[in-house]
Write a structure and sequence with these properties.
elongated, three-stranded antiparallel beta sheet, five-stranded mixed beta sheet, 10 helices
């Protein structure tokens, strides 16, 4: 086995914290992966990994070696692409994760355009609201809405989404229409909670140029975007969503926007990917294509 392949095996073990998962990810027998690390450590004359029954982690030398390996492997891929057709006609599997409603509204309707342009790229698309671990789950890039939490990722901003506060006509007829943030104390909300933490997200408003969070009580909380809109349309209370997600309901009159003078700041749409994937032709063409999709849609 050559040195670069040994480096690739080592980096996947560090990222996945497991010999077994790294072997499965790379398509090698576990014994091959184990022997590759033994030979690598023998050649370097240092111990690279701490091994326990539960987890594998890098030693201090292993951590330093991992950093160098990631950069070397990225440089190697970039160099090979310069002298091959890969950059112009990338191929292989591209693992993507995206927010469900965002993907269904903006990406999936035009995805055939990407597949036609890059027929040799195989797409594996996950859709949900949970936060994924790109490195541990071997995901190449994610499409997300909101503030970026992970500064270790490369991020490219794609668009801004206008946010609106809505209610059904039946709810407004029964409870009246709130016109100021002080009126919200007399109102109810359909609340949205995090599937990971169970935390309910507060409503946000822009008051005198300042961002203000307000918790509005309610009898129903959900963690699904479609259920959120349906409960609002059924009269259970106020919701706050990107305008694109309720444009049809607003146009039909099934929902009405309230308090437009206090709309929160628009939410940012970004695509994120690990530093060591930024030179991948597959990631590069997909990110560029996403930028075009959102530029056109906005």
């Amino acid at each position: 086995m050559d040195k670069f392949e040994s480096m690739r095996i080592f980096t996947r073990i560090v990222e996945l914290k497991s010999f077994t998962r790294a072997a499965e990810d790379l398509g090698y027998p576990k014994a091959t992966v184990t022997n590759a690390i033994k030979q690598l450590e023998a050649r370097l004359r240092v111990r690279l990994l701490h091994r326990t029954t539960r987890q594998v982690s890098p030693t201090l030398d292993g951590d330093a070696y991992y950093t160098r390996c990631v950069q070397l492997l990225a440089d190697l891929e970039e160099t090979e692409n310069v002298f091959s057709q890969a950059a112009a006609n990338p191929s292989g599997k591209l693992r993507i994760d995206m927010h469900g409603t965002l993907g269904r509204h903006f990406v999936l309707p035009v995805l055939d355009q990407f597949c036609t342009r890059y027929p040799n790229i195989e797409l594996q698309i996950g859709m949900g609201d949970r936060l994924v671990d790109l490195v541990r789950e071997s995901i190449d890039c994610v499409l997300r809405v909101g503030e970026l939490q992970d500064s270790s990722m490369v991020a490219r901003r794609l668009a801004s989404l206008e946010q609106v506060t809505c209610a059904s006509p039946a709810y407004l007829e029964l409870h009246g229409e709130p016109r100021h943030v002080e009126d919200l104390a007399a109102h109810r909300a359909v609340n949205f909670f995090s599937a990971q933490t169970g935390k309910i997200y507060p409503f946000e408003f822009k008051v005198d140029g300042e961002r203000r969070e307000i918790a509005i009580p309610g009898t129903i909380s959900v963690n699904n975007a479609d259920a959120y809109k349906q409960c609002c349309a059924s009269g259970f209370g106020l919701i706050q969503v990107p305008r694109y997600g309720v444009a049809g309901l607003l146009a039909s009159g099934a929902l009405r926007e309230v308090m437009p003078e206090y709309r929160p700041q628009p939410s940012t749409v970004s695509v994120l990917y690990p530093h060591h994937r930024q030179l991948s032709p597959r990631v590069r063409v997909f990110v560029d294509w996403l930028a075009t999709v959102f530029a056109t849609a906005m």
